[in-house]
Each structure stands twice: as C-alpha cells, then as structure tokens.
Amino acid sequence: MTRPNALISWSSGKDSAFALHQIRREGAFDVVGALTTVNESFDRVSIHGVRQKLLDAQLTAAGLPPRIVPLPNPCPNDAYEARMKRAMADAKQAGITHIIFGDLFLADIRAYREQKLAGTGIAPVFPLWDRPTSVLAREMIASGLEARLASIDRAKLDRSFAGRAFDKRLLEDLPAGIDPCGENGEFHTFVFAAPIFSQRIEVTCGDIVERDGFAYCDLVLA
Q1: Kind of pairing, strands 66-71 and 123-125?
Q2: 103-113 in b/e burial notation, b at 16+ Cβ within 10 A?
Q3: Which of 13, 40, 48, 110 is most buried (most C-beta within 10 Å)?
Q4: Which of 63, 60, 61, 69 minimizes the C-alpha distance to 11?
Q5: DSSP 111-152
Q6: How far apart are CA 151 and CA 165, in angstroms?
Q7: For 69, left (φ over 0), alpha (ψ -120 to 50), or beta?
Q8: By the 8 A CB rule, do 187 and 152 touch?
Q9: Per-residue model confidence as pLDDT tens for the chain (222 residues)
Q10: Residues 51, 220 contacting (CB under 8 angstroms)
C-alpha cells in the first residue's frame, strides 16, 4: 500500500526531530523532505538562530531533502504568509499531501496552521500533540536525542542557559513555571544526535550573543 507523501516542518530543534522519530516509527507516512524557514540576510534558521551549515548537516544525517523557505529580515507577517503559501503550492504540485508539525499544546498556533492550510490540499499532522511535556522531555532524552539550547528568551531564563545541553540536569535546573520542552518560547534547541540521524554532528558553542531580548549560542561545526 502506498503511503502518503509528507514534509516535516523542521526547526532544527528537538520537537521536530522527535516528531519525525515518532512518524517514522509508526510508518503511516513517507517523509520526503524537510521544510525550514531561513533568514536570508544571515543564512540562519529562523527563531533558533542556527547556521545553515548546521541545518544542512542535520538533514544529511536524517536523509531528508531540504525545502528551504527564505525569509526577509525583518519579516512582516504578510511576507511570511506569502512565501509559505508559495511553498505549500510547490509541495502540492510535487505530490505532497501532509505536513508534520512538532507543536505540543499551544492551541492558537495549531489553529493558525490549520486555518492557513485549509484549501491547500495539504493536511497538518501533530504527532506529539497534548502529551505532558514533563514526561515528553524525559522520553526525548531517553531515546538518545541530544541537543543544546541554541536560543533563550532573556525575560524568562538567565543568559547562562544558552548553549547548555538538553538533559536531565537541565530539566532539574529550570526555574519554576518554565515548560520542560520550552513550548512557551522559553528556549529553542539544536539537535546534534538522535535516533533518526545516521551519525552525530559534532558542534561546539562559540560566542553568546544577545539581541532583541534573546541570547543566542553561536553553535559551529567542530
């Protein structure tokens, strides 16, 4: 039986990586590519601030052809939506019928995705939806997934968290009220090892840069 073709919405972080792991284990979809938004001025993954070279290394290790959506800097919402609409039209023309998201519990984000995909012929899939994040975070770590905090919201976390490993010690050190998976935007990660990867990606943490209320760890290939 032919499986429907799907894209994974790939942020370079743990949620999209674990969503892909879940989908591949279940086997209901043929994931034929990774859709990632990249700041075209800096060649870095949007929000996470990860260099595109690291993104390329991830997708090679995951065996996923990249589908890069370049975004201007700054990127007003109408520009974002126009470029995503074009990307979905291209995907539909290529025979893709689903897109997989690593969203966990933010209902407004899910509703936005569903609204924008309505009528495109591409259906959203949320394999991690509504799973308790305290359990999910530990399940990710137990699976062999390894990641570092690539960016943090300075209004919610101290600068010292930037670049830290996403591990049990980190979960213990997070202040009260911080979601263990950072689903409220407290932090974003870069995955360098995972069950879905054919090999580890060796990285080192360079400078910590603060900009627009966030602290970014400049991860580079070792």
Answers
A1: unpaired
A2: bbbeeeebeeb
A3: 13
A4: 69
A5: HHHHHHHTTTT-EEE-TTTT--HHHHHHHHHHTT-EEEEEEE
A6: 12
A7: beta
A8: yes
A9: 799 999 999 999 999 999 999 999 999 999 999 999 999 999 999 999 999 999 999 999 999 999 999 999 999 999 999 999 999 999 999 999 999 999 999 999 999 999 999 999 999 999 999 999 999 999 999 999 999 999 999 999 999 999 999 999 999 999 999 999 999 999 999 999 999 999 999 999 999 999 999 999 999 999
A10: yes
Report whether 66 contacts 41 (CB < 8 A). Answer: no
CB 31 within 8 A of CB 64: yes
**How far lies 117's CA from each of 28, 29, 100, 106, in Å?**
20, 18, 12, 17
Strand partners, 215: 152, 210
Full strand arrangement of the beta sheet holding 146-153:
187-193, 146-153, 214-221, 203-211
For the chain, domains (ranges, CATH) are 5-125 (3.40.50.620), 133-221 (no CATH)
